[in-house]
Structure to design on (609 residues):
């Protein structure tokens, strides 16, 4: 039986990790993911650069998750950060098992782990590598150790619980919501937890608050102003907190079955213990909802905060499900319990689209912007962006101060929208890249301010729907005076510049007739060193390789089969990229064509967005 239990647990953990960790490059980096990588870099280097020289003024956490994130990013890029987040989410599933096993039984632990493994808030909080990933795993581990310390009354366990809870707080300040009731609950266990848990946790938090008091005061002021601008209608609140979170309410209803409604003779102490567990876990589940109500902040991404409530609620709900299954009788209970747990877990996972990452994406795919600028920028170029997520991909090329976004800009004696408008009118920026993603007041005002003056000095060089949200990408280049373009992306034929790649067919914006979905990519290179090779890729929602290495001919010409897939609107807006590498695999040059359309069988163009 013990072997079977461990086998089932390993299967649950394997499934949990697959859901959280498969296809880590499903979209380009979310803005918050890049923030923490950037902050981690600056913290480890002990060098904070404008405009991120005061990160604790704007972020509801310390640098702990950023430190983890930058280490993972150095190993495997943004995919590494997301895999680390997936691993943290899987450890949280294991912690849910440990909590439930300690509070109730091993079978309740398996049930709770299976349910938590499939819940969409828990899954996607681990798919997107923000500080919530760290906060969830440290809170879950802290609760596991807290329950064990409660049962075993050992000083080192109480202290470890305090350390883990404080680590959760360092990942996200809002974790402090749970500390008061955990401290008060521990008081009933006497002096030992007071000295080994409550006092250390209080010292940790008080010391942090004192040392960073200036940052916290500024953050509180910022939060207060931000809160005033985020008032939503009753229908929006109903949709965010009820319709989208039926999993929370279903599990809450099922958890009621865990409450011992009767007190059989001789079991008074056991019943008191179960009721005490129920009250504590429900208090933890309700804390985040109470905070949301008191703060009056409509949380558009409540799925992340719902994960914390589900962390407390799932063990109680699992116990309630198994208690209901026992009504089937002792003989049928094992089968009825397993079926009930699987049914609840799969149903909630299916209803929450836990298997469908695309249903949860709320930020743009900026790969077309990244592709446009590859090999085009110089260290002197200045960019204006409306999406902070693009910065992550451009900072290796440009100094941080040369990348300007919508949240603050000072130009001469002006600030805000007038500063952006004046700078664009003067041609201060070499490029302006907009993807329409930001809906904050500052972003909308910036875009509104620069629209009328853009045509004076800038030409639209690339436009296409952004793949994830279908918002319009627009990239403008300054033509008066012309922007300086890096030699690696200048068209072939310009004297004295090498190496270079040029795509001759298909051209940007061309409607291409194909055989099935196949056509022929044609191009040429100049200045390629001996042994150089090319790689061709096609972008729709991600990059797809178009075969292996291409060796240019003696005159520099090359051809390659090119496959333009998709139906309807998916026939449109393909991006073709050809990169040149030296024999050692070092990148040399890039050519890119945008907005390529696969024509219909009769040669006509499909209806494109």
């Amino acid at each position: 039986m013990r072997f079977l239990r461990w086998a089932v647990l390993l299967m649950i953990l394997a499934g949990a990790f697959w859901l959280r960790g498969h296809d880590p490059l499903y979209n380009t980096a979310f803005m918050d993911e890049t923030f923490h990588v950037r902050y981690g870099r600056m913290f480890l280097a002990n060098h904070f650069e404008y405009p991120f020289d005061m990160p604790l003024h704007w972020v509801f956490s310390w640098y702990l998750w950023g430190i983890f994130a930058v280490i993972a990013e150095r190993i495997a890029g943004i995919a590494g950060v997301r895999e680390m987040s997936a691993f943290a989410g899987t450890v949280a599933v294991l912690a849910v098992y440990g909590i439930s096993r300690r509070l109730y039984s091993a079978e309740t632990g398996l049930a709770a782990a299976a349910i938590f493994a499939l819940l969409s808030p828990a899954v996607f909080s681990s798919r997107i590598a923000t500080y919530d990933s760290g906060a969830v795993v440290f809170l879950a581990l802290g609760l596991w150790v807290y329950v064990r310390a409660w049962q075993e009354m050992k000083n080192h366990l109480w202290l470890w619980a305090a350390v883990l809870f404080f680590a959760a707080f360092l990942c996200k300040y809002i974790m402090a919501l749970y500390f008061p009731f955990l401290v008060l609950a521990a008081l009933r266990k006497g002096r030992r937890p007071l000295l080994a848990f409550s006092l250390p946790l209080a010292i940790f938090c008080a010391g942090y608050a004192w040392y960073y008091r200036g940052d916290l005061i500024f953050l509180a002021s910022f939060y207060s102003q931000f809160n005033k601008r985020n008032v939503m209608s009753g229908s929006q609140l109903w949709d965010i907190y009820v319709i989208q979170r039926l999993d929370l309410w279903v599990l809450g209803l099922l958890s009621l079955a865990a409450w011992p409604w009767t007190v059989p003779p001789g079991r008074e102490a056991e019943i008191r213990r179960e009721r005490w567990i129920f009250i504590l876990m429900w208090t933890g589940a309700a804390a985040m909802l109470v905070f949301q109500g008191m703060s009056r902040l409509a949380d558009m991404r409540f799925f992340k905060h719902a994960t914390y409530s589900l962390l407390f609620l799932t063990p109680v709900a699992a116990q309630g499900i198994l208690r209901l299954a026992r009504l089937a009788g002792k003989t049928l209970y094992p089968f009825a319990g397993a079926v009930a747990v699987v049914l609840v877990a799969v149903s909630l996972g299916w209803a929450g689209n836990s298997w469908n990452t695309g249903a949860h994406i709320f930020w743009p795919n900026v790969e077309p912007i990244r592709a446009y600028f590859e090999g085009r920028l110089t260290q002197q170029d200045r960019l204006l962006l409306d999406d902070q997520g693009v910065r992550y991909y451009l900072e290796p090329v440009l100094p941080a101060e040369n990348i300007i976004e919508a949240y603050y800009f000072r130009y001469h004696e002006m600030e805000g929208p007038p500063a952006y408008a004046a700078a664009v009118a003067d041609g201060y920026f070499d490029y302006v890249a907009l993807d329409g993603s930001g809906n904050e007041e500052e972003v909308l005002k910036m875009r509104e301010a620069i629209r009328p003056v853009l045509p004076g000095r800038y030409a639209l060089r690339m436009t296409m729907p952004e793949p994830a949200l279908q918002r319009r990408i627009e990239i403008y280049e300054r033509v008066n005076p012309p922007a300086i373009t890096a030699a690696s992306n200048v068209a072939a034929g310009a004297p004295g510049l090498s190496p270079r790649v040029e795509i001759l067919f298909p051209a940007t914006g061309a409607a291409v007739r194909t055989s099935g979905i196949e056509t022929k990519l044609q191009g040429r290179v100049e200045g390629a060193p001996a042994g150089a090779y090319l790689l061709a890729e096609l972008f729709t929602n991600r990059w797809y390789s178009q075969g292996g290495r291409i060796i240019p001919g003696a005159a520099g010409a090359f051809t390659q089969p090119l496959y333009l897939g998709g139906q309807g609107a998916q026939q449109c807006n393909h991006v073709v990229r050809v990169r040149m590498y030296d024999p050692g695999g070092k990148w040399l040059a890039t050519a890119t064509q945008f907005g390529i359309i696969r024509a219909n069988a009769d040669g006509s163009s499909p209806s494109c967005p």
Summary: Residues 490-496 have pLDDT under 50 and may be disordered. The CA atoms of residues 65 and 171 lie 6 Å apart. The first strand starts at residue 383 and ends at 385.
